[in-house]
Amino acid sequence: MKKWRQREPALPYDENDTITKKLACIYGISDIDEFLNPSVRNIHHYSLLKNLEEVVNLILLHISKDHEIIIFADIDHDGALSGAIMYRYLRYLSAKVRIIHKQRRDGHGLNTAEDVIDPNTRLLVAIDSSTNDVDSCERIRANGTNIIIIDHHKWEGKDNTHALIVNPQMPDCDYPNHELSGGMVAYKVCQALDDYTGGDYAEEMVDMAGLSLLADSMSALEPENRYYIDLALKNVKNLGLKTLLNELKVDTNTMDSNKFVYSVSPCVSAITRKNEFEKAIGLYISDDPIECLEIAKELINANKERKIKQKQSYQTNTTSN
Q1: Residues 87/100, Cβ–Cβ less than 8 Å
Q2: Is residue 69 in a domain?
Q3: Is the pTM of this model over 0.85?
Q4: Domain interval for residue 145
Q5: DSSP class of residue 221?
Q6: How does residue 2 score in pLDDT terms, banded at 50, 70 and 90?
Q7: Which DSSP string corresponds to 100-162?
């Protein structure tokens, strides 16, 4: 027999409080109005991220020397969004930039990608992975390659002196929100680059940044995350995303988190499972309406195929049992 246990509230409440107040306290929400109406007051400044100034200076140094910058994107939806954010921003700065990746079958992190990284690469930017890939970083750095890691995954305690890491989960990092996605960390780096260069392009990608929080199932209880999710849902700008939503018959004016998670994300996941991750990234970096439409249709078809296979598998298993 199952035993039901009452959840210990994160904050104390009085038995005479309303159900709403009790639920808020259980989940650690002290200000209900602020939770329901997130605002710019919930944002934390990018300068709280450790190593950010050094990362910005290193990126600008390599751009000034006309070096090609290689972006290594992780192979999931957050990886596609964060890789696209960094790629689009560096392209905006007129940098020589190229984006590389592996496929789902290969796994995650720089340890899977050493075979596709040119030893003559001057600057490698790993997005949404590789915080703990110390050995790979050491081998890549031995070629003279500068390495920047923009990530949000938990640090496993290994010192990495071979790369500059921007990650809110790193020790001695003062950034209070540990629930950022890779896309949000990339966006924060772009905000810093804007301020250093006098630019204003980072905000053009706030939709991708905010939606990456949903794509990677980051906590919406975090006030900063709620603000950016709300902002992103109301300001879809990316051409590829708008094209995909249009093909899915999702109205951008009424889109909510459920529509994104259960419409867009499955399409990206389906094409990733087919080991065609380049199409997921291509959707977000293309400014060609025809190309975006072609990719959107491919993603939708991949998801339809996935549904058919899933249904067939279920029917087979049901029959055999």
Answers
A1: no
A2: yes
A3: yes
A4: 46-204
A5: T
A6: low
A7: EE--GGG-SSGGGTGGGS-TT-SEEEEES--TT-HHHHHHHHTTT-EEEEE--SPP-S---TT
